[in-house]
């Protein structure tokens, strides 16, 4: 696949405490000098007026994947109104972007700076892996290009390995349908100033709603199946001011789920059986490439064709380790495709040997080994495992017949048992699974044998609801709760996010809910508070 030229992040990163005046000329000077020289011919050639290119930073700024000594900075250049074929249409094919990192909010004490190149073949995105900073402190950053400055983003480094850490605030988000609503949940999440945002999949949706689904706003393009299509989806999302606020407020650690490529795909298999593996892998490569281009993730996560290793680990001193897992890329085909559309739905174990087949996988062998090894790390008080799919079982059916949903871990029961057995054997400190995908609040106790409430409780699971996407039927799932006593709380009627406040002895869990996804100015409230006490894998009301 195309590669951006190696940027100048490491070569041109300068030493500490460089006055910013050395970096930035007054804006007027840039516009009449460098900016005008670079930008004017391009815009003249494309007949664009200057007000439209007042700034190329219309898709915002972001940081992510924090380390003890740095983080990744991201931006992607664009021009409003967005062109479905190329968000940066009208910009030069190659644009130098200066970045700077400061130790103060006003960007007066610049401690790192450099230049990266945004190229058309990379979707005009840049990823800068900044190094050499101090641990466990906030930093601020911004970009300059074509005579314009970006807004200032706030980010944070990890504590030094093993360092004492008393508290950590994590916002958890997933499933943001652009068409279903406005992103006020992102804005409220930003206002809580978390230390970290965990994004657990479905950042975009690849399909478009039918007109009779009453979308709040439209993508303005057909279902995404190629790089241009996926890029356009991300550009739509990224141009939303509330989403930009969430990125500018804190570093993000992101994983994907299915909609970054296609609804309910599984490994190299499309959920549309008529699509050949070879053709679907091409689509998967396009989706992965656009995901990378649009996420503040390490340069090492750049896909090679339709592969990218996105499972990784972050250590917050002696308080928490956070491992992220990829539940889409490596997994076996969906189990026993049913007659339901695209092969998904509920299945009965008696009719589906796939459920108990130990040769099947959710994570792939290499990722499984890596995940289990991570469970042996007892250096922190809490072991957070962030991934895209509901891990607890949700038994449907009746007394005669059990039925299970195919796309979640319920469709991969043998691999799930291996995972839970690994937790039981390795006994990580306070394991908590953080999950996405399901568009509902699910707070679950995880038993070693998911269908046996008498088996040992070994972990807990928190699934935040969606930012905007439609939830499953409240009545249907509520009716199943008596058969699923490990589900301590369920609600699919609200949109929002989860805020975790982690201390050594306790995790506080706040379920935040927005008043109306169709209202750009929606308010936020707390639906319920829960907690997990250290040493006790059980979700309790707080
Ligand atoms: Fe989703």
The dominant shape is globular
Summed up, the helix count is: 10
Structure ligands: fe (ii) ion
Give the total of beta strands: 26
As residue ranges, the low-confidence spans are 1-51
Tell me the distance between the termini: 50 Å
Alpha-beta classification: alpha+beta
Mean of residue pLDDT? Answer: 90
Radius of gyration: 23 Å
**Strand coverage percent:** 25-35%
Query: Strand order within the widest sheet?
Result: 12-11-10-23-24-25-26
Fraction of residues in H or I helices: 10-25%
- Major sheet: 7 strands, mixed
Q: How would you sum up this structure in a few lines?
A:
Helix content is 18%, strand content 27%. The chain has helices at residues 9-12, 27-32, 34-45, 184-191, 227-238, 241-249, 277-294, 365-374, 413-426, 474-480; strands at 18-19, 61-67, 70-76, 94-102, 109-119, 125-130, 138-145, 148-149, 153-156, 167-173, 196-200, 252-255, 312-316, 320-324, 346-347, 382-386, 396-397, 402-405, 431-435, 441-447, 457-463, 487-491, 496-503, 506-514, 524-533, 540-541. The protein has a 7-stranded mixed beta sheet, covered by helices on one side. A 7-stranded mixed beta sheet has the order 13-14-16-19-21-20-22, covered by helices on one side.
